[in-house]
Write a structure and sequence with these properties.
Layout: H1 2-12, E1 16-19, E2 28-31, H2 40-52, E3 57-63, H3 72-77, E4 80-83, H4 86-89, H5 96-106, E5 110-114, H6 129-137, E6 141-147, E7 152-159, H7 164-174
Parallel strand pairs: 1-7, 2-5, 2-6, 3-4, 3-5
Antiparallel strand pairs: 6-7
Helix pairs in contact: 1-2, 5-6
Length: 194
């Protein structure tokens, strides 16, 4: 219901959704960037609604605490997947990327959204767990985007992981310019620029 409401409201405000992913690619990790504002949630729900209509299962990673009571029903309905770090601490999984890659065994046609900036504040170093998750799950990485200046969000370039350094430079090239709602809060990862 929340996804549908967000979809309706975004359309009403003149937003468009673009999907550059071919139909035959049914599971992937999507980068959610730039992430500078709580308003990004509405753009994500707009995108998720469009993708749900095509038979995908759309999820995003969030701290486990946000999926517990009293938020359980709300967060599950929008696709939140609580990252239970206790499963790593207990030895059930070696690390969080092993845990996140296991999601692809649990769900078919899964799109797992990860915000590698890890915060809405400026950060010079992105978390690269999205990359390692995709490698371990054997799925591509899709470069998601929200362009507030053009009122468009969607799925852009597709990366089939092969070489970490090369791929990360290609990813940063895509995200070098900012489409953010709060541009001063956005920084690409300088380690992979130039």
């Amino acid at each position: 219901m929340i996804k549908k409401i967000c979809h309706h409201q975004m359309l009403k405000r003149g937003w468009r959704f673009i999907n550059n992913v071919p139909e035959e690619i049914r599971s992937f990790v999507v980068i959610g960037a730039p992430h500078t504002s709580n308003w990004d949630f509405f753009a994500a729900m707009f995108a998720f609604y469009n993708l749900d209509q095509k038979g995908y299962t759309t999820r995003f990673v969030i701290k486990k605490e946000w999926t517990e009571f009293p938020f359980t029903s709300l967060m599950k309905s929008v696709g939140a997947w609580g990252l239970d770090r206790e499963k790593v601490a207990s030895g059930q999984f070696t690390n969080t990327t092993d845990l996140m890659s296991s999601f692809f065994k649990e769900e078919k046609n899964l799109i797992l959204a990860i915000a590698p900036e890890g915060t809405r504040k400026p950060t010079e170093t992105w978390k690269t767990g999205f990359y390692h998750t995709a490698v371990k799950a054997g799925v591509p990485i899709v470069l998601g985007f929200v362009d507030y200046s053009q009122k468009v969000c969607g799925l852009g370039k597709i990366i089939f992981p092969s070489s970490f350094e090369v791929d990360m430079r290609e990813i940063m090239s895509f995200y070098q310019r900012s489409w953010a709602r709060i541009p001063e809060n956005y920084l690409p990862d300088k380690r992979f620029l130039g």
